[in-house]
Amino acid sequence: MSYRILIFEDDDERIKWLSQEFIGNIVHCTDSVKEAIELLCNYDFDLIMLDNDIEESHYENTNAYNGTGRELADWIAATELNNSPIIVIHSCNTNASQYMFDVLRPLYPTIKKSFVEIRGKGIESVINL
């Protein structure tokens, strides 16, 4: 069985690593909130990987909102997706990670905040966490 995975990420190395972790599945990668929303409207995802700081300016202004994982997390929370995907927040921005976790946790209790919980486990293990 293959799973549909959305990776919201801007770092090419991280995208490469994540794509290799989930080989054999349908993986969509984007660094655009608009594109991520379009994908979420058109597909039911089994796993969503969320980074926060997407643009270079986000690293300088850790409170930035537009174009970030926080903006996407707010949209996901307000929309309540048709299915219940596993969501993994993998941002190094501690405040943004906590914000996304707090916003999404009431609707998606299986949410995770770390690569550590999924690294090397394969998609079946992640989906069944």
Describe this structure in words.
The protein is of the alpha/beta class and 129 residues long. It has one domain: Response regulator (Rossmann fold, 3-Layer(aba) Sandwich). It is 41% helix and 14% strand. It has six helices and four strands. The chain has a four-stranded parallel β-sheet with strand order 2-1-3-4, sandwiched between helices. Helix 1 links the parallel strand 1 and strand 2. Helix 4 packs parallel to helix 5. The chain is globular and about 40 Å long. The model has no long low-confidence stretch (mean pLDDT 83).
For this entry, give a set of tags:
129 residues, alpha/beta, Rossmann fold, 4 strands, 41% helix, globular
Major pleated sheet? 4 strands, parallel
Let me know the average pLDDT. 83
Please give the CATH architecture. 3-Layer(aba) Sandwich
Order of helices and strands: EHEHEHHEHH
- For the largest beta sheet, what order do the strands appear in spatially? 2-1-3-4
Q: Helix content range of the residues, please? A: 40-55%
> What's the count of strands?
4
Spatial extent as radius of gyration? 13 Å
What is the fold-level CATH name, i.e. the topology? Rossmann fold
Per the principal axes of the C-alpha atoms, what is the gross shape? globular
Helix count, DSSP H or I runs of 4 or more residues: 6
Cα-to-Cα separation, first versus last residue: 17 Å
Unreliable stretches: none
CATH superfamily: Response regulator
Strand content: 5-15%
What CATH first level would be assigned? Alpha Beta
Q: Kindly give the count of domains.
A: 1
Structural class per helix/strand content? alpha/beta
